[in-house]
Each structure stands twice: as C-alpha cells, then as structure tokens.
Write a structure and sequence with these properties.
Pfam families: adh_short_C2. Keywords: Membrane, Transmembrane, Transmembrane helix. The chain has about 280 residues and is α/β, with parallel strands linked by helices. The protein is about 45% helix and about 15% strand. The chain has a single domain, classed as Rossmann fold (3-Layer(aba) Sandwich). The protein contains eight helices and seven strands, in the order H-E-H-E-H-E-H-E-H-E-H-E-H-H-E. The chain binds NADP nicotinamide-adenine-dinucleotide phosphate.
Length: about 280
C-alpha cells in the first residue's frame, strides 16, 4: 500500500480530516460498554483511533498504544477532552517487552482487562510474494500475526469472565492479490487465529471475533486512493460505490465487543460496503 505520492496526500489528508471531524461530531447514545476496560493497539490514527473514540463514547475505559510517544500523548489529550478515561504508552507491538509493559500499564491502572482489540499491522514492502525480501517477510509475519498471538496470550490471564477479543484483519484476507498478497496472507492468518482461539477460549466464556475492513482512506491505505483513477477503481469495487470511514469500522467493533454479540464467536465481520470478498 505504501509509499504514497505527495501529489495525492493533500486529498488523503482532507479525507482523514473529514473522517476525524465526522468522528468528533459523533455522539452515540449507546452506552453498552460502561465501565469496561479495553486495550487497543495502534490507536493513535485511522481505524484504531476511530475504535478508541467509539468504544470510549460507549463508556469504556481505555488503554491505548502506538510506537510514537507524541502520538500517544496527543491521542490521550483528544480522548480525555471528550470525557473518555484513558491511559497509554509508546509500544511497538513487534517487541514483546513493549507489549508486556503495555498490558502491565492497563492492569496496574484498572486491575483487569475486559476487551482486547488487536489492530496494529504493517506492510513494509509490496510486490509478488516470491520477490519480497526476507526482512520484510519477517516484519509482516512478526507484527501482523505473531504480535497478535503474543498480545492475546499476555492479556488472557487478566481477561475478566465474559471478556472478549477482536482482531482487525482486512478484506484482502479473502483475496490476497498482488501487489499486497503477502500482507493479505498475514490477514488470512487472523481469520484462522480467530477460529482457533474461539474454540480454545469458548469453554471459559471468552468470545473471539474479527473485523475485516474494506478500503478506508487512512495513511496506511494512501496508495490505494492516491490518484483519482485508483480511488474510483476502489470505490467501484463496492456495492455502495464509496470508501469506508474509521467510524464505520469502529461501529462494527463496538457491536462485536458488546453484549449485543453475546452469542457470536469465531466470526469475521466484513465491513466493506459490499465489496466482493467472500460468498
Ligand atoms: N485503511 C484500510 O483501507 C484498511 C483496510 C483493511 C484493513 N486495515 C487494517 O486496519 C488496521 C489499522 O490500519 P489504518 O488504516 O487505521 O492505519 P493508519 O491510519 O496508518 O494508522 C496506523 C496506526 O498504527 C500505529 N502503528 C503502526 N505500526 C505500529 C506498531 N508496530 N506498533 C504499534 N502501533 C503501530 C500508528 O502510530 P505510530 O506511528 O505512533 O506507531 C498509527 O496509530 C491495520 O490492521 C490494517 O491492516 C486497514
């Protein structure tokens, strides 16, 4: 998906600001998560930030992270200014020690965790699968798959009864096509992880689900909408004829982590405007 070309970043930024504005205007009356403690990775921009805002608006207490302390600080300020209780720290999900410190911060602050939203992912290289260099294969597998497993394992001992986990996958999980097929395959693995953990943790009452977003114009997806041509192509792949917003992905996550989804586990919800991705 990266790198983006400068010429189209202007439009990107406008889109993101629009999405951000839409999110900040949003006042959901739902309070399904009152008092719930939610851990969200990569929550300082794009879809992760949208999830933090939505779950916070529904009454959740948050622990957030991303790699850069400045981003964490700015996001905590933004959340708290909206009356949302939140703590956070700089953490690269690819580093176990960072994940341990992040989980510890949440436990020290709130004494338990009710919900984990594993959202972080990277796509450091594009191209045909067999052309991707080893370092990039390692990074994609480490951050997109291994970190999700390690984080779930670290969170598990602190998960409350009837706690739950949501992994953020992608529509590309269903159709891992060039030039981002390796990234797509890493997202396919999350569908499998969701099924596997749903079975393993089900007897303890812990639900595990997954959300697969369609194309959402964030920094991460900049290359997919960098030109009018690319943007129109991606829009035309949906039944609704438009791209998604972080707010729309966050609404699906809010449903899955809430008691409204109390009998839903092992599922992946594709939020892609009707994008053809599965039967
Ligand atoms: N946008 C789309 O079209 C789309 C479609 C399908 C799926 N997704 C998935 O949605 C998720 C979020 O993507 P997005 O589009 O919202 O991206 P984004 O807007 O570019 O935001 C990325 C966020 O991740 C943080 N981050 C990046 N690497 C990290 C790491 N190693 N550890 C911790 N935090 C990290 C960034 O903050 P720092 O720079 O401070 O680390 C930032 O907060 C990803 O799993 C992506 O695969 C996106």
């Amino acid at each position: 998906m990266r790198p983006a070309r400068a010429v189209d970043l202007k439009r990107q930024r406008a889109d993101c600001e629009l999405n951000g504005a839409a999110m900040s205007e949003e006042t959901t009356t739902c309070r399904r998560l009152l008092g719930k403690v939610v851990l969200i990775t990569a929550a300082t921009a794009g879809i992760g930030l949208g999830i933090a805002l939505r779950l916070g608006q529904e009454g959740a207490k948050l622990a957030i992270c991303s790699r850069k302390q400045a981003n964490v600080d700015a996001t905590l300020k933004q959340l708290r200014s909206r009356g949302i209780e939140a703590v956070g720290c700089a953490a690269n999900v690819g580093k176990r020690a960072d994940l341990e410190a992040f989980v510890q911060l949440a436990v020290d602050t709130y004494s338990r965790i009710d919900i984990l939203v594993s959202n972080a992912a990277v796509n450091p290289a594009t191209g045909d699968v067999l052309e991707i260099p080893d370092w990039a294969i390692d990074k994609i597998l480490d951050v997109n798959i291994k970190a999700a497993i390690v984080l779930a394992a670290l969170v598990k001992p602190h998960l409350s009864k009837a706690g739950n986990i949501v992994f953020i996958s992608s529509y590309t999980a269903y159709v891992p096509t060039r030039p981002i097929a390796l990234y797509g395959m890493s997202k396919t693995a999350l569908l499998g992880l969701t099924k596997a953990l749903a079975e393993e943790l089900g007897p303890e009452g812990i639900r595990v689900n997954c959300v697969a977003p369609g194309t959402v114009p964030t920094k991460f997806a900049a290359a997919l909408v960098e030109s009018d041509e690319m943007r129109k192509l991606n829009e035309s792949r949906t039944f609704l004829g438009r791209l998604g917003t972080p707010r729309e992905i966050a609404a699906a996550v809010a449903f899955l982590v809430s008691e409204d989804a109390s009998y839903v586990t092992g599922e992946t919800l594709l939020v892609g405007g009707g994008m053809h991705a599965k039967l």
